[in-house]
Amino acid sequence: MLYFFQQDGLAESAQGAEPVVEEKTLSLFDLMFSGGLGGQIIIIILFVLLFVAVYIYFERLFAIKAASKIDKNFMLQIKDSVLNGNIESAKIRCAQSDSPVARLTEKGISRIGSPLEDINTAIENAGRLEVYKLEKNVSIMATIAGAAPMIGFLGTVIGMVLAFHELATSSGQAQMGALAEGIYTAMTTTVAGLIVGIIAYIGYNHLVVKTDKMVHQMEATAVDFLDLLNEPA
Fold first, then answer.
1. For residues 63 and 130, what is the distance between their CA atoms, to the nearest angstrom?
2. How does pLDDT run across 7-26, given as a tens digit for each residue?
3. Nearest to 193 by CA among 154, 138, 161, 157
4. Other CB atoms closer than 10 Å to residue 38's CB: what's the count?
5. At residue 55, does pLDDT exceed 90?
6. How wide is the angle at C-alpha 207 spanned by C-alphas 189 and 66, nearest 5°?
7. Helix (H, G, I), strand (E, B) or coil at 226
8. CA-CA distance, 123 to 196, in Å (whole number)?
9. Number of alpha helices (DSSP H) and beta strands (DSSP E) in the chain
10. Could you give the CA distance from residue 94 to residue 221 in angstroms, rounded to a whole number?
11. Is this prediction's pTM over 0.85?
12. Alpha-carbon gap, residue 165 to 100, rounded angstroms
């Protein structure tokens, strides 16, 4: 009987001697801002770039959507006014529709009576101005898409340099845990930079597609207007 009690006691003591492994958790905020002053500056810069990219994306998206709205009967009304010789009515109708298509059409109407080549040139020049307005600040998003990953990588390189500097100054006695913590913290700047760059890149390409659709719409309207002028009286 005593033997069994001793066995049970040994089992309990062995079981109690097992080390308790605590799971180490780290929040996203701590991960982002625990990389020292250099890493924090890089993260703040990336957050600013992300804010600028998101602001430009939505501002341009709403502007392009507003510019693409036009009455389906717009060109029919312009055609009726021009064929009936009511040029002023056509200009008023264009002024009522605040859109790139209407402004191009108004530019062409104001040149009626001039050679067809001059009218075409005037519409093309007005079209370039409208495209420039649609693409306002979009190039900044392209710059952010390319610069953000490089800025993040710069933060990682700085963190790696500091980690190896600590290893060198400690004569090889630095704890591996401290080095590993410094290295994975430095890597967070690259992750943040890639996230900002991907978001800016996707937003930029989406705006480019939207702008191209608007440009095609303006080109189609210009062709319709020139065909109208070529119709026999």
1. 12
2. 555 444 445 445 544 455 54
3. 154
4. 16
5. yes
6. 130
7. helix
8. 39
9. 9, 0
10. 13
11. no
12. 59
Is the Cβ–Cβ distance between 134 and 100 less than 8 Å?
yes
Sole residue written with tokens 């079209």:
127
Q: Which two tokens stand for residue 54?
A: 């998101």
Spell out the residues 6+ positions from residue 50 whose beta carbon is closer than 8 angstroms to its own.
148, 195, 196, 199, 200
Query: In this predicted model, what pLDDT tens digit does every residue of 146-193 receive, in sequence order?
Result: 999 999 888 888 777 777 766 777 665 656 655 666 676 677 888 889
Q: String of b and e for 88-109 (b: at least 16 CB within 10 Å)?
A: eebbebbeebebbbbbbbbbbb
Q: Which DSSP symbol is given to 27?
A: -
- The distance from CA 141 to its chain's CA centroid, rounded to whole angstroms, is 5
What count of residues does the chain have? 233
Pinpoint the alpha helices (H) of 17-115. Answer: 28-33, 36-68, 74-83, 87-96, 100-110
Percent residues over pLDDT 90 in the chain: 20
